[in-house]
Amino acid sequence: MPADMPTPADLLLDVQDLCVSFRSERGTIRILENISFTVGQREILSIVGESGSGKSMTSLAVMRLITDPNAIITGRIIYKGRDLLQLDARAMRDLRGREIAMIFQDPMTAMTPVYTIGWQIEEQLRAHQKLSRRAARARAVELLGEMGIPAPAKAATRYPHQLSGGMRQRAMIAMALSCNPSLLIADEPTTALDVTVQAQILELIQRLRQDFGSSVILITHDMGVVATVSDRVMVMYSGIIAERGPKPLVLAQPSHPYTLGLLNSIPPMHGARPRRLPSIPGSPPSPTGRPAGCPFQPRCDFRFEPCGTRPPLFANGEQEASCYLAEKGLPDWPHERAIRAEGRQREGAAA
Amino acid sequence: MLLPTLRRLAEMIFVMLGISIVVFLIFFATPGSDPAARIAGRNATPETLAQVRHSFGLDQPLPIQYIKVMEKLFISRDLTSFVNRGQKVIPAVIEATPVTLSLVLGAAVIWVIFGIWVGVTAAATRGTVIDRGLMLLGLVGVSMPVFWVGSVANLITQSRFHDTWLFHWVPGLGYTPITQNPWLWFKSLIIPWMTLAILYIGLYGRVLRANLVEAYQEDFIRTARAKGLSETRIMFRHALRTSLITFVSMFGLDFGALVGGGALLTEVVFDLPGVGRLTYQALQNLDLPFIMATVMYSSFFVVVANALVDIAYAWLDPRVRDAR
Amino acid sequence: MSGRVPMLEAASVTKTFVVGSRFRSGGIQHVQALSDVSLKVFAGETLGLVGESGCGKSTLGRCLLRLYDLNGGRITFKGRDISGLGQRELRPLRADMQMVFQDPYASLNPRRRVGDLIAEPLRVHGRRRESEVQDRLRELMDLVNLSPEFLTRFPHEFSGGQRQRIGIARAIALAPSLIVADEPVSALDVSVQAQIVNLFMDLQDKLGLTYVFIAHDLSVVRQIATRTAVMYLGGIVELGETDRVLHRPAHPYTAALISAVPEPDPQGNIRARTILRGEPPSPTNPPPGCRFHTRCPIAQERCRVEVPLLRPLEDAHSVACHFPLDGPNLPNGAAPGHA
């Protein structure tokens, strides 16, 4: 285990070999394959990936919110020493919202349209704490205020559709934090928002660990968001971990070609504009059409013989990647490929 | 909330005015036929025809005729049947209304309670045998014609098994006003209520289940689970509440239509002297003033029910309140 | 630039949407979607339109193609005033100006084969023989890098990126000179987004297309656009060469927008940025004076009363601000320009 991984005492969440698959008429469809990760106290872990990578499924599995009777979930999800997969439904329900809370991409559809946001926050408070209506409302208003909503007492009487996207997401976060959870799972919390509002929400999420002492799992497809708020990052591709490690290392010198491709395909805001954007050919496979061996191999420019068999995670210091290129030290990318990531690092330091 | 409600009521009156004009035109301005002859009924004497022409102002322009008819319907209320010589139409309709209301209200209570029960139970157990069983029963309920169910019910409770302990309490066909004997009123209506409700329980149960299953796909149900709420609470406070909109709009229309005479078959089968049976008799005799009055009456009820549904909508869904 | 004749010119375009009803609470409300917008699009260039949701960029795109009627102002396409034309008169022009949408799936009839979908404009507009249509179809598939075998498949069989390629093939089928692309890459996965941006640039090189490229993602606009217009609450606040606008923004809104873009910088930290507070006001009730003054960090008394007009700075750069910023306001690495 790498040196400064959180020690077991600091560990809030320890997911080991999480596998999720679904029984279907055409056999078992594997969605997540052997996903392991940890979240330390007051740590922000980003899970990044494209559609079909399994990043949202991971968060739903942790919350035990996969309700499909055909789902098969194996592995261990150790939260504060207890395996969530072994808990009965009642104990799990008690944990949800109180210990682990979740916010979603689109708070417009994620909040029940027919109740005021104050009512919805009160509902969560009263589900977990013995509180009077009045006390719950007072706490809800207080939370809305802490999330930066102007005139919180009035906002509490509004329905979700009466608020702007940014305000709705703030209300959603207020609701998630209402019972002081130790872990907040944010599933694409800013994807539906404008950049200026996104910046506000990201700032808010980052502030949570000071003000509320919460750890955060941030699920996103945006490397920019990853760079802005996280401590560590886990890149997922097609149901497996492609790469994981401390954010500065992974972004500065990726050790999986997929991470590299993802970083390079973002048009730069500074420096020279490439004539053509380096892009990854093809598109992410669907869960039913996953290739054998390394799932990224059909889209990979660095494919070589070993790729026909599934690579394990190879560690280089704190950085791990499931790629044979990372087997003996961090891979050296060809100059014309790596330059962008390096250039960015220099610029970042200068800024 | 008050202003939109008043506005909706104003719209309702406007629609009623429109309906009354259309109904009037159908009866009095259909080309190629003499309204007087139709009002007077078959084999009317020339004197009767002349009397009809005079009293409805048929020699005057249409707007005057319209005002005269409306006056007869709503102000003097002395529209008279010529077929059933001398019977005043409006008092007859007013007399029949409590019967129909008793029948439909009771049935509505039954079908709403059982409809919700069927829908919620099936949705909560979706995919299981219970769900499939309930849906099958619902389908059976929807497919059974009401006059057939009514006749079978009569056959069982009135003749075949009337003397057994199970059905000896069932009174003979007919209606007892609630003011006269509430217990007898209840007893005489319970079989008609259930007969009328069966169709709607099946229909509403199936529709509600579909809406609930759809609601369970919504993001906010996932949020409710993530909040740590119990499944019961998720069902009743989140899924059911948002699924009731279709239910309420169906209810408004069905209730309005039934009160407006749509319970005709049930009324005839159980010999209840309601508006439906009145319409049925008027149709048999081609009693035009009666038909006109009942048509007007039933369309008004549908309009009123619709307005109430809209108001209930705004209460159920704040998004409707704010929709511009 | 000023000497050239623009292919498309919008002069003082105003567009108001009427919402609500006389009979409902709130009564009739007017949403000022565009107020007094003027811009020129020159042949062969890509004009980027950026701004946050509700700023009117999509409405402007649709007005430019006359998919909407205008409430005021004029649109000239290739020297001809098209602002007053009816739908029938616009028909022949439609072949020359096309639109690409954000979600190609929503605009592709799921029950029809891809070949028929792409051929539809060919069959509607041209009097072509069927063999010519088939030849053109294969040519189009080649242009957007899709295999001709896909012509017989249905839209749902394709990934998001492939669907957008189909949408593009359909848009270029009649060889238009102008394409308005409304957020064409924002629904796509990052790795696919780059492919589509490249495709847009390749097609421009091959076919000499002119683009109006609407996006909320500044980095995509920086990659593809020659000039960029920044919009806020129904008006253009800044317009100029892309490098100029993005590296030396003159409008405080542009500067804040750029600052808010999260970049994949390994040392990234949100505190290093200027975060714009609040959210755009409602377009039904825009603030007086400069529309940005409610959120502007440098707003002064004058901004609350006087509407700033779009006025030229140097180098064909214009800004609608009483107190434009000067000098580079952002960490600016290497010299901008295509590598």
What percentage of amino acids of chain B are in beta strands?
Answer: under 5%
**Biggest β-sheet strands, sense, barrel of chain C:** 8 strands, mixed
**Basic shape of chain C:** globular
Within the CATH hierarchy, at the fold level, what is the topology of the largest domain in chain B?
MetI-like fold
Helix fraction bin of chain B? over 70%
Mean pLDDT of chain C: 86
For this structure, what is the CATH homologous superfamily of chain C?
P-loop containing nucleotide triphosphate hydrolases
**The CATH homologous superfamily of the largest domain in chain B:** MetI-like
CATH architecture of chain C: 3-Layer(aba) Sandwich
Compute the CA-based radius of gyration of chain B.
24 Å
As a percent range, the share of helical residues of chain C equals 25-40%
- Strand-pairing-aware structural class of chain B: mainly alpha
Classify the fold: give the CATH topology of chain C. Rossmann fold
Number of domains of chain C: 1
Q: Report the radius of gyration of chain C as a whole number of Å.
A: 21 Å
Question: What's the total helix number of chain C?
Answer: 11
Total number of beta strands of chain B: 0
Uncertain ranges of chain C: 328-339
Report on the architecture of this protein:
- The complex is a heterotrimer of chains A (351), B (324) and C (339).
- By secondary structure, chain A is of the alpha/beta class.
- Helix content of chain A is 33%, strand content 22%.
- Chain A is built from twelve helices and twelve strands.
- Chain A has an eight-stranded mixed beta sheet with strand order 6-7-8-3-9-10-12-11, with helices on both faces. In chain A, strands 2-1-4-5 form a four-stranded antiparallel beta sheet, with helices on one face.
- In chain A, helix 5 crosses helix 7 (165-177).
- Chain B folds into two domains: 24-89, no CATH class; 92-323, MetI-like fold.
- Chain C has 339 residues and is of the alpha/beta class.
- Chain C starts with 7 loop residues before the first strand and ends in a 20-residue tail after the last strand.
- The model of chain C is unreliable at 328-339 (pLDDT under 50).
